[in-house]
Amino acid sequence: MHGILVGWHRDRLASTFARHRRLLLGGVVALAAASALGLLAGQLLLGPAAWEAWERTHFDKGTLDLARIAALMAMTAALYLSFRRYEHRLNRVAAPLLLPLGQNSFYVFIMHVFVCLAIASVPLLAGGGLGLVGNSVVEIAALGLLWLMVRRRFLFRWVPR
Fold it and tell me: Contact, 29 vs 36, CB < 8 A?
């Protein structure tokens, strides 16, 4: 909802913040960097059990903890600013990877349910079994599988797009 509201008033907000552009840009980048470093340092310093408890308390999808909101807002703003700054360069790399998924988003949404069920049915992969790096690799592989399914038009005749 907030994204829709900001998007609706984008021009007015842009003109309001134009005077403080460098200060805002520096603040967003600093907050995003602090969030990323804080998350990484927390994982390394607290240990697995303490980190999971802290993460469950502050970063669970069901909570509206201030740390989670600030970190997500800063990361999203930093990514947005980076994409806008390097739009033409990233477009050459990201467009072939992301456009097929976006153009067939309903198909991807439906098929991701079955990919997630297949992953969850493997005991080693279910839950947090592989840790941060292992789970990230599994997620990237699942996204690659979905991209490949779109490119090969797998079950396009029967699954809505």
Answer: no
